[in-house]
Amino acid sequence: LRLRRVLLLGEGNFSFSAALCGAQGTHVVATCYESEEEAAGRGGAARSIRRLRDSGAEVVFSVDCTKLKEHFLPGKREFDRIYFNFPHCGRKAGVVKNRQLLARFFHSCSEVLAQEGEVHVALCNGQGGTPADQPRREWHNSWQIVAVAAAAGFILSDVHPFKAETICGYKCTGYRSQDKSFCVEGALNHVFTRGTAPLCFTPMSCKTQLGSRKVSFQVPQVLVDKINRGFLEVNSSHPVRTIKEKLSAGLSQAFPLQNISSCLPLLHQGHPDGVCHSNIFWITLSPEEAPSTEKTSQGLENTDLFSHFGQDTDKNVQEGCSIPKQFYLRPSLLPHAQAIIKKGAFSPGTLQVLSGPVFRKCRITPHSMPVFHEMLVVLAVSRGTESSCIQMLVDNIKTTVNSLHQGISGIKPNISLQEATSCGTELSDFAAFEWQLGEIQHFLCVGTDPDPSGSCVGVIRTAPDELKSRELVVVSASLNLDLLAMLLCGISDWRMLWTSDQRFLRQFPEGELRLFKSFSLYPPSYVHDVSFWVPDGEEFDEVAFHTLARRVSGEMVVSIQLRDDFQQPGTGRRSLCYRVTFQSCDRALGCREAAEMQLHFREEIQQHLAVTLR
C-alpha cells in the first residue's frame, strides 16, 4: 500500500512533527526555514529531530515554503497533506506582509499537493478573518486567508479549533523569531482543498429529433454546463431524482400512475401565450446536412407533441421545406400535458406524471434558477369532486415530504396550501412565472428552519375546459424538484445542485437523502458597481441584464442590487447604478478573476444592451 506523504513546514522545535511521526501508514517530511545549526539550538529541537530520524521520517532544513517545488525531486513532490502551523514573516511583520507570505505559500502548495490532498494552516485567534474567528477582526485587519487561498485555486473545506493540549509533547515556539512561546488559545486550524478547475464554456451544439430529421441547435452559453446532465435518469443518485421517485411512489399508493416523461422534446415552436418574451431562451434551428429517413419511435412521439405548438412542423420536415426558426427551450411541461390531453391519450382517473428540466431566464437570487427539474402530475376527475381530489393529492405530497424531511433532519416541516387570489409582487420568480402560464388555484409552500414561513415549491391548477367535457375536470400540480431538494437537504444555493465537484454527490450515496455539508466554507465575495445611461425612450430589460451577468461570469454572480435610479434634470436622461457581487459556492474565485469578469461584463452590456457606460 502507498504511504500517505505528510509535509510539515516552518517547524520551530519539531515537536509537532515528532507527535505525528508514529502514525501508521504515514511518511513524515519535517522541514524548517532555518539551517540545521540554528534549528537545533531551540529548546527541545535536537531531541525531536533525533526521534523523527529514528522513526524513518525525513528532516530537511533551509526550506522556503514559497518555493517548495525547488526542494523536492519530481518523484517526491506529491504530498497528501501539508501542515503550516502559525506562519509568520518574523519579528513585527504586519498583516499585509503575512498575507503576501500566505499567497506565495498557497501557490507553491498547488505544485506539490496531490489532487485530493489537504493543506492545513493553523492561525492565532482572529488572524484568519473568517466568521469562525471569535471575536472576528475587521476584514482589512485580518490575513484574509480564504481570499488569499482562492487566488491559488484552494477552497476552505473545514475549520476547527487547534487544540495544542491534545498533541503529545507539542510546544509552540517562535514568537517574533525568538525561542519564545505565544498564546494559542482560540487558535483555529484551517483545512483547504483544491477547488474544481474553471469551466471552459466553449460553444456547444445539441441534437434533437424533429419528425424524420435530426436537427441541432447551439445551446445558450449560460446553459452549456446544465444541458443533458441526466439527473433524472435511472442510474442517477442526484437528490432531485430521489425526491421525484419518492413522490411518485407515494402518489402511486393513492392513484393509478403512468409515467410519460421519457420522450418529451426540449423545444417548443411559435410564441408562448401570455409569457413575457424576455423570460424565454430563444433558439435558432439548423437542419443536419444528412437527413435521416428512418423514423424512430422517439421521433414520432416528439412530432406528435410538437404538433400542439406548430401545426405545420412535421409536414414541413417531411416535405423537405425549411424548418421554422421560431423555437425556444421549454419553460414548462404544462403544454406537453395539454397536448396529450387534447390528443385523447389520457385516461380519466389515472395520474399522469411528467418530469424533466425546464428553462427560464430570470433575475439572480439564491432561489431563482434559469433551469430546474419540474415534476408535473395531471389527473382528470369528475366535475364537482375536484376540491376533494386536490386535497387528496396535496395530503399525499405532504405525507411524502414530511417523511423525507423527518428522515433527514428529524424535524417536521411546515407544509401549507395557500389560496392564490392574486399575483402579488412578493411572489418568488418561480411562482410569478407560473402565473404567466395560466390561472393558479393554490400555492404549495414548504417551510423549514431558518424560514418556517415557507417557500413556494409548487402550484395547483384546475382546467374545466381542457377536456371539452361536461363530466370531467383536469387537475394538475407542478412541483419544483430543485427547490424541494434545497429545502429538504439544507442546500442554501441552487448552483450547488449543478456543481461538477464530486464531493456533492458523494454525500448522497445510492440516492440516500442527507443534510448537505458544504465543502466550501465562507467563500470570499467581491463587490463591484456599474452605472450607465439607458437608451432614450426604451424600457430597460433587467432580466436580460441579469442573464448577461450569468453568462459572463459562468454563474459566479450571486447578487445584483439596484443602487440608484437617476433622471438628469433638463435632458430627462435616465441613469442606473447596480451593485454586482461575485461569489462562487463550489470553487475558488480570486480577486483578480472577479475583476476581469466585471470588466468583461461592462463590455458586454454596452454591446448587447446599447447602454452608455459612465
From TrEMBL:
EC number(s) in its UniProt entry? 6.1.1.20
Name the Gene3D superfamilies for this protein.
Bira Bifunctional Protein, Domain 2, Ferrodoxin-fold anticodon-binding domain, Vaccinia Virus protein VP39
Cellular compartments per GO CC: mitochondrial matrix
**Annotated coiled-coil segments of the chain:** none
Q: List the InterPro entries hit by this protein, alphabetically.
A: aa-tRNA-synth_II/BPL/LPL, BMT5-like, Fdx_antiC-bd, Fdx_antiC-bd_sf, SAM-dependent_MTases_sf
**Pfam families attached to this UniProt entry:** BMT5-like (PF10354), FDX-ACB (PF03147)
Q: Which reaction does it catalyse?
A: tRNA(Phe) + L-phenylalanine + ATP = L-phenylalanyl-tRNA(Phe) + AMP + diphosphate + H(+)
Q: What class of enzyme is it?
A: ligase
Q: Where in the cell is it found?
A: Mitochondrion matrix
Domain FDX-ACB residue range list:
521-614
Q: What is its main location?
A: mitochondrion
What GO MF terms are annotated? ATP binding; phenylalanine-tRNA ligase activity; rRNA (uridine-N3-)-methyltransferase activity
Kindly state a single biological-process term from the GO annotations of this entry.
rRNA base methylation
What keywords would UniProt list here?
Answer: Aminoacyl-tRNA synthetase, ATP-binding, Ligase, Mitochondrion, Nucleotide-binding, Protein biosynthesis, Transit peptide
The similarity annotation says: Belongs to the class-II aminoacyl-tRNA synthetase family.
Q: What is the name listed in the Swiss-Prot or TrEMBL entry for this protein?
A: phenylalanine--tRNA ligase
The scientific name of the source species is Poecile atricapillus
Name the gene: Fdxacb1
